[in-house]
């Protein structure tokens, strides 16, 4: 059998040599191309029309009207320069014009579009763009354009751009240089556009200077491809030495095998060695281990690859650290389909909640969804992710501790031992609405939660609400009004009808608006929307029953409340009825919901009667009004 073992190893070595030789040929045999002011276009780039053997197909550039064009996210960017010494290319949005302050980028592009990563021993921060190409980006600044309903009195970072920039509808236009934190976004302001620039020195208080910075463009890098070619086994420790502008590799043989050589190659080599030395039953055990590893490794590798490509604000803890913080997982706070939640304490002192995830779905997608969404945002009404743990099959999320637990125990308390005043409930509802509005309109990327319900609203020691549990959440670009979904997601009773009925409208952020409406209705009534134990059949579905009372201008008729509390409950119910309209287009946005909750009840119109199913008829006096 010796010749078979040698044959396998020879084939592997020849394959690796062939791949390496092919890459060298691609780099050196093709003469450089040029287009407009960009000359010496060479590996890994090539122009459209160049021979297929030249450059990489993924790095193909266009030449349109004598301008070099780079394709990014199916969009075009004009190439300003290519630096082969530090592996960077500077591009600019084609809509930007240097001397036209009214010109703006065609689309938003920001740090959230990039998979952040740190290269070991590197001097600079780098981010890999999640696209078909392994682009990375040197650190850049943001220019954020916002439209505000009211004039911002204490401007601070807000620079007026209204003379040159006009958004649809009324309002005041501002530009902000640098990152915009959630707490810095003024009430009534909406993010309209986010654009990057690599010009490090510009006046943050001058709109013309900010526009000049945008017209300069931003730099992206193909260093990951260069590292992969330069470091034969692994680019895990590859970096660009700024002192001599050369790539350096730092890699141990073990970690190179662990992260670079495919699992099946490791298995083949290990099996050959095992068969030679032991033969028999141990050989069969090795085959079993390899098959088990192949089946389970996809999920773990998927998560590890995501973490490797993303620089996350949360801290990564080892499982040993997590177990120590939770004191052996003795104090359980709750459980659900995701797993268990335990109370723990950081070494620095503060208490935290550790969410130990059970069996993951979709190659670890639930874990990735939660870390990807909540790991990049910070808002008073969104629970903060402090850290996470990934150690083989062990996965945990570490959140700030919410002493008062979830909202459901306060609004569905049967024994009356847990009581919240209507003023407190009303303030909680506004906080939740603000948190969801931030997810929809205040982030660089739109975040759709898809599971808004009382159980996922947590309360801190001051009863400030925090939206939590982002396991079903998805990230979308701000201008992506309709999203594609392969399967319905959420909790029955709070799920929007468009998730079931495709003929009433597309799936969008309005699905969260519907869920919030069902939540708001339960908060106002302090009872489940569906009550199978009701005295009268008309009271089984509370939204329909309460609508008839409100339309007849009757009191909401909630026990043990004052006249003022009854007025608050009625306002919450009217807003909720708007939110649970059948068609998505008939529901308000979450920004509008916040305005309705904070405004006077006299300014609220009674909405059309909620329709449960698409085939229900609507009388003339119930014609649905677009919001």
Strand line-up across the major sheet: 3-4-5-6-7-15-10-9-8
What composes the largest sheet? 9 strands, mixed
How many distinct helices? 14
Rg to the nearest angstrom? 29 Å
Please tell me the overall pLDDT. Answer: 75
Low-pLDDT windows of residues: 17-28, 115-132, 251-261, 294-300, 617-627
Portion in beta strands: 15-25%
Q: Give the distance, in angstroms, between the N- and C-terminal Cα atoms.
A: 77 Å
Helical content class: 25-40%
Task: Give the overall shape, derived from the CA principal axes.
Answer: globular
Give an overview in words:
With about 625 residues, the protein is α+β, with helices and mostly antiparallel strands. It has 14 helices and 27 strands. The chain is globular. Helix content is about 30%, strand content about 20%. The chain has a nine-stranded mixed beta sheet with strand order 3-4-5-6-7-15-10-9-8, with helices on one face. A six-stranded mixed beta sheet has the order 18-22-23-21-20-19. It starts with a helix and ends in a 29-residue tail after the last helix. The longest helix has 29 residues, at about 280-310. It folds into four domains: about 5-240, no CATH class; about 260-310, no CATH class; about 315-400, Phosphorylase Kinase, domain 1, CATH 3.30.200; about 410-620, Transferase(Phosphotransferase) domain 1 (Transferase(Phosphotransferase), domain 1, Orthogonal Bundle). The model is unreliable at about 15-30, about 115-130, about 250-260, about 295-300 and about 615-625 (pLDDT under 50). About 35% of the residues are buried.
């Amino acid at each position: 059998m010796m010749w078979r073992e040698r044959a396998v190893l020879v084939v592997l070595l020849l394959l690796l040599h062939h791949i390496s030789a092919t890459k060298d040929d691609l780099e050196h045999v093709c003469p450089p191309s040029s287009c407009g002011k960009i000359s010496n276009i060479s590996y890994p780039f090539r122009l459209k029309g160049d021979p297929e053997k030249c450059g990489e197909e993924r790095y193909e550039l266009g030449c349109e009207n004598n301008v070099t064009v780079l394709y990014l996210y199916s969009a075009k960017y004009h190439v300003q320069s290519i630096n082969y010494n530090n592996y960077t290319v500077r591009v600019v949005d084609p809509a930007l014009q240097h001397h036209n302050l009214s010109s703006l980028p065609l689309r938003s592009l920001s740090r959230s579009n990039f998979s952040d990563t740190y290269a070991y021993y590197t001097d600079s921060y780098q981010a890999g763009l999640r696209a078909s190409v392994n682009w990375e980006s040197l650190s850049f600044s943001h220019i954020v354009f916002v439209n505000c309903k009211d004039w911002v009195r204490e401007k601070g970072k807000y620079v007026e751009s209204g003379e040159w920039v006009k958004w649809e509808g009324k309002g005041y236009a501002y530009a902000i240089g640098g990152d915009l934190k959630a707490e810095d976004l003024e009430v009534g302001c909406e993010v309209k556009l986010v654009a990057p620039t690599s010009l490090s020195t510009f006046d943050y208080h001058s709109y013309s200077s900010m526009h000049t910075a945008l017209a300069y463009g931003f730099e992206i890098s193909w260093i990951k491809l260069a590292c992969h070619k330069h470091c034969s086994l692994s680019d895990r420790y590859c970096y660009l030495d700024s002192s001599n502008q050369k790539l350096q590799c730092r890699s141990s043989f073990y970690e190179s095998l662990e992260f670079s050589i495919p699992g099946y190659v490791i298995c083949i080599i290990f099996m050959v060695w095992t068969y030679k030395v032991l033969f028999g039953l141990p050989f069969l055990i090795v085959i079993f281990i390899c098959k088990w590893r192949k089946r389970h490794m996809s999920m773990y590798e998927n998560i590890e690859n995501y973490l490797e490509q993303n620089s996350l604000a949360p801290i990564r803890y080892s499982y040993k650290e997590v177990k120590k913080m939770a004191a052996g997982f003795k104090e359980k706070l709750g459980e659900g389909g995701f797993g268990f939640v335990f109370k723990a304490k950081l070494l620095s002192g503060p208490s935290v909640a550790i969410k130990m995830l059970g069996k993951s779905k979709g190659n670890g997608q639930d874990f990735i969804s939660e870390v990807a969404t909540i790991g990049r945002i910070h808002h008073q009404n969104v629970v903060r992710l402090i850290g996470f743990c990934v150690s083989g099959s062990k996965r945990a999320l570490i959140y700030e501790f919410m002493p008062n637990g979830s909202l459901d125990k306060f609004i569905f308390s049967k024994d009356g031992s847990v009581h919240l005043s209507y003023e407190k409930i009303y303030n909680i509802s506004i906080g939740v609405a603000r948190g969801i509005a931030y997810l929809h309109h205040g982030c660089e990327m739109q975040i759709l939660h898809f599971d808004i319900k009382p159980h996922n609203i947590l309360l801190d020691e001051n009863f400030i609400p925090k939206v939590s549990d982002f396991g079903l959440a998805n990230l979308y670009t701000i201008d992506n009004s309709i999203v594609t979904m392969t399967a319905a997601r959420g909790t029955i009773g709070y799920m929007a009808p468009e998730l079931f009925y495709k003929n009433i409208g597309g799936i969008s952020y309005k699905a969260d608006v519907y869920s919030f409406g069902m939540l708001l209705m339960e908060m106002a009534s302090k009872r489940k929307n569906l009550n199978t134990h009701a005295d009268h059949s008309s009271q089984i579905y509370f939204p329909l029953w309460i609508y008839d009372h409100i339309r007849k201008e009757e009191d909401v008729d909630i026990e043990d409340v004052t006249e003022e509390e009854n007025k608050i409950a009625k306002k919450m119910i009217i807003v909720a009825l708007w939110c649970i309209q059948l068609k998505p287009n008939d529901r308000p946005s979450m920004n509008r919901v916040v305005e309705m909750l904070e405004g006077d009840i006299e300014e609220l119109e009674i909405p059309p009667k909620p329709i449960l199913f698409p085939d229900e008829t609507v009388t003339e006096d119930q014609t649905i009004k677009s919001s």
